[in-house]
Amino acid sequence: MDIPVGFAQVNFVFGGTACPTGAQCAFGIKHTEWPNPKSDIPAKIELIWDQANGLRSFTNSRVVLQKIRVKLGPNLTGAFYEVAVNEAGDQDRLHSVPNVSHLISKLSDLGGKNGRGRTFWPGVAENDVLENGDLTANRIAEMQTAFDNFRGTMQIELLPLQILHELPVPFPTPITNMVCQTRTATQRRRLRRT
Question: Residue 193 pLDDT more than 50?
């Protein structure tokens, strides 16, 4: 991804029994209005992870957020910050196979190919999946609440979420909505050997 000046890529780095070979979720952010040192961004995002009805509240307890990494733009010379977290999710449920994830769509006002993105949130619980591979309505509502709160809080904290692009698209696109898809997703690469 191209990370211009004034923007950053945030990676949630996961481990735990639901992620035996690890997993990562990436989000772009804009940090030009952030009033504090840029090195404080990972710790602020950790607090947002921990908020009531936030991402941790609805993440499987067998998924451990090991660290949060923030890479500032530009790609070649931007600073890199990281905070160790080592916190499991709050929901105590038996997870399904490691390559089954929640598919979270990132949407913007731009529309089209350059106006959307996606991320895969690990730790789908076995009892949250119907026979046809869809998530239960309750689980979709929980994840939607978590991502609505995450996106809203990032906006309030002056770290609005962005869709980062490959060149030649010159600038990131502001995320206006994040949607938990009905169908579970798989990532074949998450099971490969490293």
Answer: no
* Residue 17 in this model has a pLDDT that exceeds 80: yes
Question: Of 180, 110, 181, which Cα lies nearest the Cα of 147?
Answer: 180
Spell out the domain ranges in the chain: 7-189
* pTM summary value: 0.91
What's the helix, strand, coil split of the chain in %, to 5?
20, 35, 40
Mean pLDDT of the chain: 91
In whole angstroms, what is the distance from residue 64 CA to residue 61 CA? 7
Provide the residue type at 191 as one letter.
L
Q: Cα(124)–Cα(147) distance, rounded to whole angstroms? A: 15
- pLDDT of residue 190 exceeding 70, the answer is no
Beta strand 173-174 pairing with 161-163: antiparallel
- What is the C-alpha to C-alpha distance for residues 144 and 148, in angstroms, rounded to an integer? 6
Counting every residue written for the chain, the total comes to 194
Cα 6 to Cα 170: distance, rounded to the nearest angstrom: 13
Asked if residues 51 and 62 have their Cβ atoms less than 8 Å apart, the reply is no
